[in-house]
């Protein structure tokens, strides 16, 4: 029996994914999570076979949840889902331990292919991402300025772009407002920008946040 955890903050998306899984695996048990902390809490139980994890969750970045999940269950297959193009997040997700990365505009059968692959201990990535991974092992300079951001900096950038204040970000990430300000200063320097508004515009222009 396959036990799957689907993590997404949109009920319609969760229901659609649930139906896809149960159509392919009629005996599958599927549970849902809306927030990142819900995922971590549920994964403390040992009997999961697969996690399908959205990269955008209301309380924390999917990348952060991915790392925490892998720390709890190192061998548990995790498929990352995103509305963003592969080139924006796929390499980061795979380096953080994801077993597959899919965008939500793909045909449903691509998800089923990924499920079968990761259950067999395989990675599931597109040819384009394979090429990115190969290039990232060489000495090429990053193509986009945001590729120089740390995962935490990228997380803070996305939260700014979603309309969160420094105080709200600090509360969500359990860090001080001063630490958020430090991340903001680092991002401005790395992206050659000047204001928080510039950061938000950059994130939206490059489809790093909704």
Any overview of this molecule?
By secondary structure, the protein is α/β, with parallel strands linked by helices. It folds into two domains: 3-136, 3-Layer(aba) Sandwich (Rossmann fold); 145-205, Arc Repressor Mutant, subunit A (Orthogonal Bundle). It contains ten helices and five strands; from the N terminus they run E-H-E-H-E-H-E-H-E-H-H-H-H-H-H. It has helices spanning 11-24, 36-42, 62-72, 86-95, 108-119, 127-136, 151-161, 166-173, 177-191, 196-205; strands at residues 3-7, 29-33, 50-54, 78-82, 100-103. A five-stranded parallel sheet has the order 2-1-3-4-5, with helices on both faces. Helix 4 (86-95) packs across helix 6 (127-136), helix 7 (151-161) crosses helix 9 (177-191) and helix 8 (166-173) packs across helix 9. The longest helix has 15 residues, at 177-191. It starts with a strand and ends in a 5-residue tail after the last helix.
Write the layout of secondary structure elements.
Blueprint: E1 3-7, H1 11-24, E2 29-33, H2 36-42, E3 50-54, H3 62-72, E4 78-82, H4 86-95, E5 100-103, H5 108-119, H6 127-136, H7 151-161, H8 166-173, H9 177-191, H10 196-205
In brief, what are we looking at here?
With 210 residues, this protein is an alpha/beta fold. The chain contains 10 helices and 5 strands, in the order βαβαβαβαβαααααα.
Unreliable stretches: none
Shape: globular
Distance between the termini: 36 Å
Got a strand count? Answer: 5
**Structural class by SSE content:** alpha/beta
Number of domains: 2
How is the main sheet built? Answer: 5 strands, parallel
Strand order of the largest sheet: 2-1-3-4-5
Content of β-strand? 5-15%
Amount of helix: 40-55%
How would you state the average pLDDT, rounded? Answer: 88
Name the CATH class of the largest domain.
Answer: Alpha Beta
CATH architectural category of the largest domain: 3-Layer(aba) Sandwich
The CATH superfamily name of the largest domain is: Response regulator
Order of helices and strands: EHEHEHEHEHHHHHH
Radius of gyration: 17 Å
CATH fold name of the largest domain = Rossmann fold
Summed up, the helix count is: 10
